[in-house]
Amino acid sequence: MRLAARLAQFQRFMRQVAHLSLPYFRSDERWKARGLLLAIVLLNLGSVYMLVLLNEWNRVFYDALQNKDAAVFWAQLGRFTYLAMIFVAIAIYRFYLTQLLQLRWRAWMTRHLMGRWLQGHAFYRMELGRYAAPSAPGDAAISPNGLPAPGQRVPDNPDQRLQEDVNLFTTQTIDLSMGFLNAVVTLVSFVGILWSLSGGFSFALGGHQFTIPGFMVWMAVLYCVVGSVLTHYIGRPLIGLNFEQQRREADYRHHLMRVREYSEAIALDKGEQAEYRSLDLRFSAVLANYLKLIRKQKQLVGFTNVFGQAAVVFPMLLAAPRFFSGAIQLGELMQISSAFDRVQGALSWFVDRYDSLASWRASTERLTSFEAALSKSNVPPAQVQPAPAATNIAAIQADDLSLQLPDGTPLVQHAQLHAAAGQHTLVQGPSGSGKSTLLRGLTGIWPWATGRVALPASTAVIPQRPYFPDGSLRDALAYPAPAGDYSDAALRHALQQALLPELASRLDDRDNWTQKLSGGELQRLAIARVLLKQPAWVLADEATSALDVAAEQLLYQRLQAMTEQAGGALVSVAHRPTVTGFHQRVWRLVPEDDPTGAVSGAARYRVESEALAPQP
Ligand SMILES: Nc1ncnc2c1ncn2[C@@H]1O[C@H](COP(=O)(O)OP(=O)(O)OP(=O)(O)O)[C@@H](O)[C@H]1O
After folding, report:
1. Residues in the ligand 1 pocket, defined by CB under 6 Å
2. How far is the CA of 375 from the CAs of 237, 273, 538, in angstroms?
3. What phi, psi does 462 have (nearest 5°)?
4. pLDDT digit string, tens, across residues 521-555
5. Ligand 1: which atom is nearest the Cα of residue 437?
6. C-alpha 466 – ligand 1 centre gap (Å)
7. Which residues form the ABC transporter domain (predicted)?
8. CA pair distance 22, 30, nearest whole angstrom
């Protein structure tokens, strides 16, 4: 790659780091953050200063040894104790304050990203977008919805980004930038020392005498430039391999989690072998990449070790002639060796940190793409415009509502819908025609939608697969409100009304309710939640499909009574004819190209709204 391109890439990377880092140092925690950063910088500078003092100590101490000067020897040992104590105190506080800043930064950044991930349905839209088949290039149907443009990679495993990458990023940004600062300051301090000690290197060429001043400095620079270039050359593939390793590990972990989540279904399907194969495939991918990674690391470890060992003898080789000729004393030789060691150490900072730099870059890239996806997903979909006074309306209204699939395929076309208070509506249509998606469109969470929707504020939704958090039953019932918002009596009454009297005495039991309860019990628990909250409007998607007819009838009566009393109505998706009698109107999804409505899977549907004849 050309140098200019490399430089541009480096600049882009530094911009990414700044973009991810600056918000914390400008946040409401900024004074604590900046204060800690300043303290760490000062402690780093202090530790370099101590090294300079210790280097100077080297000369005096070894000269005393050579001169067999016992008085200076003992005095210098005393001085060393005092220098070492300050050095240790600085090291302790440098470590502690660095950790503290990393911890605070991680906490702030995690909470910040977690908040944005859960805001404006970004977490939902990012999941939808991941499975969205890219449309044809140039198709703008997807991108304006805050979803990835066709062909754009959707960040996978947000859990990895929030839990692992934020930690890696904050830790490494501080460690590496402080390491860099240390290296630069050490370099500047010790290059001066080395320059003053090293003397010139004279040689004759074509009858002329030449002298290179600061010979040792140039040798150290040459040594490290060669080392850095070779390290970069050997270690470059590590960046991609590290990135890939973390991605594959996260993918494997994600599939392990899915087996846990669907353990029962897998056991019933006797899917153990299939799961083993699929998990093993992912684990093998982890191992295969890891093997490549350690082979590359082996080369790098080999090189850096040779480089480090050679650095021990290299300055001795160069300075020995002057020592044996009597030009310098033992103290100066030791000081040169230690100064060369420092200069070489600072210059080879890049060599030693190559591995960390590679993983820093990988986590920065992953956080940047996550952040970019969040920024897109945090923008609410522009297409569906909620009615201005959405809070006080007494009807559900949709004007010209059209819904598409993620790949842009039209689903429901130009629906004109109105559900008046007290008038319960049934949504019917073939399987896969878009009934659930119509409810998603009405609630405003479906991003591939256009039109105008008005939904009363007091609306609750019962989805096909309701969610209950792990924890106590009262938490599951009150979700997402805190359980403390409801009295025990209200919670028990709701459970009894939803035909779950046996659970009324178990409000404080903690469990994985989604796994533990039967399908019918889960549906009744979802209805209990709605009965507890008493909304005026209820959008129910197959809310009673697992119940017996008698229970279904009783629960429909209760939901009806509740919504009517609160000045709203029910809108329900249901296949069973037994619930038809609870509704006065039907929204029927009819295939555009098959007016009988018999064929499911047709691409486009229109919604016909008509009154239902009263049932006998
Ligand atoms: N996230 C998604 N990505 C891609 N396609 C989707 C997504 N969600 C739904 N669909 C597709 O949209 C169509 C409508 O789905 P929807 O769940 O709304 O149908 P439905 O009428 O409620 O079906 P059923 O009666 O079987 O529950 C289906 O073909 C479905 O595969």
Report:
1. 128, 131, 405-406, 411, 429, 431-437
2. 30, 41, 32
3. -110, 105
4. 999 999 999 999 999 999 999 999 999 999 999 99
5. 18
6. 16
7. 396-616
8. 10
Residue from 401, 433, 448, 607 to probe ligand 1 pocket by mutation (most atoms less than 8 Å from CB): 433
Ligand 1: centre distance to CA 512 (Å): 27
Q: Chain-wide mean pLDDT for the chain?
A: 85
Residue 147 has pLDDT above 60, yes or no: no
How many other β-carbons are positioned within 10 Å of the β-carbon of residue 317? 10
In the CATH scheme, what is the code of domain 384-611?
3.40.50.300
Identify any residues that bridge with 205 across adjacent strands, giving them in sequence order.
Answer: 208
What pTM was computed for the model?
A: 0.78
**Whether the Cβ atoms of residue 395 and residue 459 lie closer than 8 Å to each other:** no
Which has the closest alpha carbon to 47: 189, 171, 175? 189
Question: Rounded CA gap, 388 and 386, in Å?
Answer: 6
Domain residue spans of the chain: 1-129+157-378, 384-611
Distance 601 CA to ligand 1 centre (A): 10
Can you give the pLDDT at residue 339? Answer: 82
Three-class SS string for 286-337?
A: HHHHHHHHHHHHHHHHHHHHHHHHHHHHHHHHHHHHHHHCCCCCHHHHHHHH
- Residue 540's alpha-carbon distances to 185, 404, 490, 531, 559, in angstroms, are 67, 21, 22, 13, 10
Quick one: fold of 1-129+157-378? ABC transporter transmembrane region fold (1.20.1560)
Whether 421 and 538 have beta carbons less than 8 Å apart is answered as no
Q: At what angle do helices 166-198 and 70-117 cross, to 10 degrees?
A: 150
Contacts of 549 (CB under 8 A, 6+ apart): 576, 578
Task: Decide which of 545 and 377 is more confident.
Answer: 545
Whether the CA torsion 391, 392, 396, 399 is positive or negative: it is negative
- Cα 605 to ligand 1 centroid, rounded to whole Å: 12
* E runs forming strands in 514-584: 537-541, 570-573
Beta carbons of 115 and 378 less than 8 angstroms apart: no
Atom of ligand 1 nearest to the CA of 439: 18
